[in-house]
Amino acid sequence: MKIIQLATAALILWVNVCLAQAPEPKSTASFKPGERWYDNKGELINAHGGGLLFDKGMYYWFGEKRGQSASQGISVYSSTDLHNWKAEGMALEKSADPQSEIAVGGLMERPKVIYNPKTKKYVMWFHLELPRQGYKAARAGVAVSDKVTGPYTYLNSFRPNGHMSRDMTLYVDDDGSAYHIYSARENYDLRITKLTDDYLSATTQDTLMFSNHREAPAVFKKDKQYYLITSGCTGWAPNQASLHVATSLFGPWKLIGDPMKGPMADKTFDGQSTYIQPVQGKKDAFIFMADRWNPKDLKDSRYLWLPIKFENAQPVIEWMDEWDSTVWAK
Ligand code: GAL
Predict the structure, then answer these.
(1) Atom of ligand 1 at shortest distance to CA of 110?
(2) Exposed/middle/buried for 151, CB within 10 Å: 0-12, 13-18, 19+?
(3) DSSP notation for 161-221
(4) Which atom of ligand 1 is nearest to the CA of 216?
(5) Ligand 1: which of 109, 127, 273, 293 to mutate, judged by most atoms within 8 Å of the beta carbon?
(6) Has residue 21 been placed in a domain?
(7) pLDDT above 80 for 15
(8) Handedness of CA 96, 99, 100, 104 (dihedral sign)
(9) Among 133, 236, 273, 291, which residue has the most ligand 1 atoms within 8 Å of its CB, making it the best to mutate?
(10) pLDDT band, very low/low/confident/very high, at 330 (cuts 50, 70, 90)
(11) Is a pLDDT exceeding 60 seen at residue 20?
(12) What percent of the chain has a predicted confidence (pLDDT) above 90?
């Protein structure tokens, strides 16, 4: 009898040891906006003000790597399902050369990456602020790579056609033309410039979209209409989003109103737009991406990703604590 009891106890102990050693399942099957999101290594995803690129069956997420406040370069993650993200390291590091425009002490914000099929290069644009100058420089920085995850080579920075350039996004249209949408004139103007064929610089085709003191532009296209979501200009603090629509990227842009719905809708759910990603293989499926900034600890700023719905043919973004891809089937 004693032997059986001992053997049972040993078996229970062994099972417990095995269970304790079993790795925690890290995969997730849903989006939980505003919660802490971890990568495949169990570390907080550090990719703020970011954007996605779908390339050869994989999504890549580029964003600002932040310390408590420092700008630490551009990070990149990869995923097949948009929930589970593998850390791919740094896409663009800060330069160790103190003379470099991307040396420590400056800012690299809101990176976006697009692929140029003609040159076969991945091209990154971001908002660059020069070391020790706060937000004065207001320039667009450009970097390039043969490989999607980088490392990207920093090329140069400029003010497109002489205009200040702070918050920004990139957009590639169906015909392969690419555009840079950016906050200019101390953020009072939102402008759009067409990129050169190699996507490395701005052409002189550069137009004022509107002068509403807006930033954080995020754009998508549905049924030949372009939709643009922007935020107001209140630094890290949240404010009310607005939605504009146009049949041409060069306008005229018509203000529709605030597309957010639910608690804290008038403060973009305590967040700020950064990008809109079409979901591959699904019709009219778009993910609105925003940052819930934490200015006391920027690296712990949270991600608010929400599906865009269409009500009476108008985009609506409703708060959800948790959601998954079954929203698209409805
Ligand atoms: C916001 C901008 C952010 C960051 C922040 C700094 O207006 O959208 O990207 O620059 O200001 O206060």
Answers:
(1) 9
(2) middle
(3) GG----SEEEEE-TTS-EEEEEEETTTTEEEEEEEPTTSSSEEEEEEEEE-S--EEEEEEE
(4) 8
(5) 109
(6) no
(7) no
(8) positive
(9) 236
(10) low
(11) no
(12) 90
Decide: helix, strand or coil at residue 141: strand
Domain extent, residue 292, equals: 37-321
Q: Looking at the 3D structure of the chain, how many domains does it have?
A: 1
On whether residue 10 sits in a domain, the answer given is: no
| Nearest to 220, CA basis, from 292, 303, 284 | 284
CA distance 277 to 58: 13
Q: What is the pLDDT of residue 27?
A: 74
Residue 220 lies in a domain: yes
Average pLDDT on 163-183 reads: 98
Atom of ligand 1 nearest to the CA of 166: 10
For residue 225, the domain's CATH number is 2.115.10.20
Q: What residues line ligand 1, using a CB cutoff of 6 Å?
A: 49, 109-110, 167, 215-216, 233, 235-236, 272
- Decide if pLDDT at 23 tops 50: no
pTM tops 0.85, yes or no: yes
pLDDT of 7 reads 65
Q: What is the mean pLDDT of residues 187-212?
A: 98
> How confident is residue 329, by pLDDT bands cut at 50, 70 and 90?
confident
Identity of the residue numbered 69: S
